[in-house]
Design goal:
alpha+beta; two-stranded antiparallel ribbon; 7 helices; 34% helix; EC 1.8.4.11; Met_Sox_Rdtase_MsrA_dom; Peptide methionine sulfoxide reductase MsrA; peptide-methionine (S)-S-oxide reductase activity; oxidoreductase
């Protein structure tokens, strides 16, 4: 059965690859959600005047990969203690949010957030928001599949603190 998930966790360029490479993922689209302007452009979102957040919309086969597994991947790509952006990306358009599209997704996301907080992995509170899904607008073509089309630039963006944070906080 095909379903969708929407996650915001900083620059959408860095959010695609961790999901895109999982079995059961049909597509990952970079885009914008949560704002007031229909079909915003990258420049409009970057101006911090539309209320949008950079996000990824993931279409997945729930018989192969569960929503709960996607949420776990999400936590490992973000700093859930930073509500003001992610890593080098600062501002409301980079805030961490799990956008849920059903009561079941909300239940899974909230339970996962509680479990992460209870794990005491982080010394600061978990501040990632869980919000109802809002219209999702795909970003311009140059922002799609960025890690494949621009591997050198992607590596620079990815190394802007994200990988160090992940290694320090998610070693099992």
């Amino acid at each position: 059965m095909t379903d969708t998930a929407i996650f915001a966790g900083g620059c959408f360029w860095c959010m695609v690859k961790p999901f895109d490479q999982q079995p059961g993922i049909e597509k990952v689209i970079s885009g914008y959600t949560g704002g007031t302007v229909p079909n915003p452009t990258y420049e409009q979102v970057a101006s911090h005047t539309t209320g949008h957040t950079e996000a990824v919309e993931i279409t997945f086969d729930s018989a192969v990969i569960s929503y709960a597994q996607l949420v776990e991947i999400y936590w490992r790509q973000t700093d859930p203690t930073d509500a003001s952006g992610q890593f080098q990306d600062r501002g409301d358009s980079y805030r961490p949010v799990i956008f849920v599209n059903s009561p079941e997704q909300r239940q899974v996301a909230e339970a996962s957030k509680r479990a992460l907080a209870a794990s005491e992995r982080f010394t600061m509170p978990i501040v990632t928001k869980i919000e109802a899904v809002k219209p999702f607008y795909p970003a311009e073509p140059e922002h799609q599949d960025f890690y494949r089309r621009n591997p050198w630039r992607y590596q620079i963006e990815e190394m802007g603190g994200r990988q160090t944070f992940i290694k320090e906080n998610w070693q099992s």
